[in-house]
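Lecture 7 notes: from sequence to structure.
We start with the chain below.
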Amino acid sequence: MSEEGISLTAFKDCDIRGEVETEVNNELAYRLGRAIGSTGEGPKVVLGGDFRASTPDLMKALRRGLVLSGATVYDLGRVSTPSYYFARRKLGIKTGVMVTASHSPPAHNGFKPTLGDLPITPEELEEL
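Predicted structure tokens for the same chain:
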């Protein structure tokens, strides 16, 4: 299943994750950046990424989408997920994206978007 070249199988309940290139790719990262940067929660967005090989390219595409939508990006670089959540809270910025596939295999990657104090809801993810 796909919508305009984006695999919908990567969309889970509260995050986006799947096999790199077939389900999660730079186009998806860019479009997600455009969508998040255009929400009412912006224009400040915290960005972090894990240590998978595909993370730098996905972060670059995501950052491009965020910036082109008018967001100011606070790029943490490659950090652990707990460090991302800590930095977001310390900076007082509610909107952010962590590039990670969490417990999924190394050939996978994904995104954990946050639009408020709690992780994103399935309804919010569907709106993006």
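Points to note: Residues 46 and 77 are 10 Å apart (CA to CA). The chain has a mean pLDDT of 89.
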